[in-house]
Amino acid sequence: MSIRESYEQWWAAIRPPNPPAVQTEECKRAFYAGAQSFFVLAMELAELPDEQAEAGMQRFEDELGAYFK
Questions:
Q1: Which of 66, 63, 39, 41 is nearest to 53 (CA)?
Q2: Within 13 Å of residue 59, how many CA atoms lie on the same side as its CB?
Q3: Cα–Cα distance, 33 to 30 (Å, whole number)
Q4: pLDDT by residue (tens digit) across 21-56?
Q5: Rounded to whole angstroms, how far apart are CA atoms 54 and 67?
Q6: Which DSSP letter does residue 18 get?
Q7: Cα–Cα–Cα angle for 21, 23, 30, nearest 5°?
Q8: If 0-12 CB within 10 Å is exposed, 13-18 middle and 19+ buried, where does residue 8 land?
Q9: What are the CA-CA distances from residue 68 to residues 21, 30, 49, 64 (Å)?
Q10: How far apart are CA 6 and CA 35, in angstroms?
């Protein structure tokens, strides 16, 4: 799945009826900003030794788990 496809699936799931154009644009910006942030963090982890990368992935999982509780 592409980032665009993921965004479209997410937006279809949460889109309110008749959202104002500004809400649509800001939600899209926020989604893509999150994707960019995760990409940068993942690239940084990819450059670490395996043990440190695994610890970093665990931090990601913990943070996301805490947010989505």
A1: 41
A2: 10
A3: 5
A4: 999 999 999 999 999 999 999 999 999 999 999 999
A5: 20
A6: S
A7: 125
A8: middle
A9: 27, 17, 29, 6
A10: 10
